[in-house]
Amino acid sequence: MTVGAEVSALFRAERGRIVATLIRLTGDWDLAEECVQDAFARALECWPRDGVPQRPGAWLTTTARNRALDRLRRAGVEAAKLGEVVAMPHDVPDEHDGIGDDLLRLIFTCCHPALTLQARVALTLRTVAGLTAAEIARAFLVPEATMTKRLVRARQKIRNARIPYRVPPAHLLPERTAGVLGVLYLLFNEGYAAGGGAELLRRELCAEAIRLARTLVALLPDEPEAVGLLALTLVQDSRRDARFDRAGDLVPLDRQDRTRWDHAQVEEGVALLDAALRRGRPGPYQVQAAIAACHATATRAEDTDWPQIALLYGELLKLVPSPVVRLNRAVAVAMVDGPAAGLALVDELADGITGHLLPATRADLLRRLGREAEARAAYERARDLAPTDVERRHLARLVNARSGGVRR
Amino acid sequence: MKYMLLICVDDTIEPTAGDPTIEQWLAEVDGVRLDGSQLRSAQDATTVRRRGDEVLLTDGPFAETKEQIVGYDVVDCADLDEAIRIASRHPCARFGSVEVRPFFTG
Fold first, then answer.
1. Number of domains in chain A
2. What is the domain extent for residue A51?
3. What is the DSSP annotation of B25-79?
4. Residue from A157, A159, A162, A163 to probe the interface with B (highest B Cβ count within 10 Å)
5. Most exposed among A46, A252, A372, B9, judged by the fewest C-beta atoms under 10 Å?
6. pTM to 2 decimals?
């Protein structure tokens, strides 16, 4: 590996932890990030000449700390306040013996519920994952200035309202952990959603969400829902190469080329899920991962275990009584008991759900019942409500397939 | 760190019998609460603005919303989590809302 490649690998793997440590030592998020940036720049300067140090993580942490100390001294910060930064041992360990606590502290602070969900996502991507404001802005389709402002405001609130920099105490931990998982899941879905142009960036978001979920699992090994989320994202993401055709159009699950799924990733996800379920503390992410696994382990679409999926959606509904879950359950029931049974469940939902998913599902069930005219009207409605070009194109094709009374 | 808890309530809503009382809350926050008071109804408020040399008065609160500030408490907490915990236990948080605002200086 070249020194440059080694530094960028370290940047991905270690940057978050080093920033987390520097924030703890200095209490200053901007200073921490700048000094860590400087440390990586120095590594690029020194390592080709002096060789890569034996423990590069420790070298980077120490360099960043010295830089922070330097800047604080120059800014005239009193000696007392420098105490903790100075007190930090010169020879910092670079293995995960307790120092992962800093990273966990950082993740929990970025995901604090006193920040807006948007701010939590942005801050996690910026501070933990090390994406630039410009990259995050592009991923979320907002101007860079808007994203920069969002990040500045979030950090200001952390400082001014004194949001604590810590892993929450036991009585808050379950709900705060659920909050962190929610941020990571949103991040993954943002990347997974069928979005036009920035395809590469979206894949990057999914990869980042998976990486962060992995980190969380390593830091919170006793939390089966964290494992469930990791399993869910791995299994969903395994389909990334088969979800779109060459023209960039959406390929529905039952028509995807299953040989193009990432089977190693499915296997990893399923193994993780099995281990999580054995703990006997199921939750929404574990159940969703189990549903995803049913799809992912079917060799052909017609081998899908729909009765099991319908059952799992029933379980999920108990944990998350949301209209979207009811809609998904109706789809599964339609596969088991026929489209009429599914349609009855969908029509019970009536206006409980906005957006294109309900009419798209109704349209599909009506089509299978041979009610073409009604199916067409529902597809049209779904097309008009679809949020992305890719989905609009997909639904428009389904509308056209049944125009002029032509039946397939 | 000092925080102002602004207690906001829609005064057409009556608290449910059996809810914790303000006395219980006051006992709980003894030592943390520095100051506070109930305020008269927003109907008795006068809003003052000065534009140029002219002093403009409005009868009523600065924002005509359903929920109005009915009181405030100043608390001294270690961090926002502690302030949130205290605010969430205020009896009015059950049917109204409590805005937690940090002071400019600790």
1. 4
2. 3-92
3. HHHHTTTTEEEEEE---GGG-EEEEEETTEEEEEES-SS--SSEEEEEEEEE-SS
4. A162
5. A252
6. 0.84
What CATH number did the domain enclosing B38 receive?
3.30.70.1060
Say if residues A224 and A106 touch (Cβ distance below 8 Å): no
Residue A20 to chain B, least CA–CA distance (Å): 19
How confident is chain A (408 residues) per 10-residue block, as mean pLDDT? 88 91 92 95 94 93 94 79 63 50 92 94 92 87 93 95 93 90 91 67 87 92 95 96 86 93 97 96 97 96 96 96 93 96 91 85 94 93 87 89 60
Residue of chain B nearest A165, judged by CA positions: B79
- Which structural domain range is residue B55 located in? 2-102
3-state secondary structure A64-129: HHHHHHHHHHHCCCCHHHHHHHHHCCCCCCCCCCCCHHHHHHHHHHHCCCCCCHHHHHHHHHHHHC
DSSP element (H, E) containing B3: strand B2-9
A246 assigned to some structural domain? no
Section B94-103 average pLDDT? 95
ipTM, 2 dp: 0.88
A207 is a domain residue = no
Q: What is the pLDDT of residue A407?
A: 47
Query: Does residue A58 sit within a domain?
Result: yes
Number of domains, chain B: 1
Tokens of A59: 């070298």
What would the pLDDT profile of A347-357 be if each residue is shown by its tens digit? 998 777 888 88
The burial of A365, by beta-carbon neighbours within 10 Å (0-12 exposed, 13-18 middle, 19 or more buried), is given as buried
Nearest to A359 by CA among A376, A383, A382, A391: A382
What is the rounded CA–CA span in Å between residue A63 and residue A67? 6
User: Among the three residues A194, A228, A260, which one is the final residue of a domain in this structure?
Assistant: A194
Domain boundary among A50, A77, A92: A92
Chain B: residue whose CA lies nearest to A157: B102
Question: pLDDT of A302-352, one tens digit each?
Answer: 999 999 999 999 999 999 999 999 999 999 999 999 999 999 999 998 777
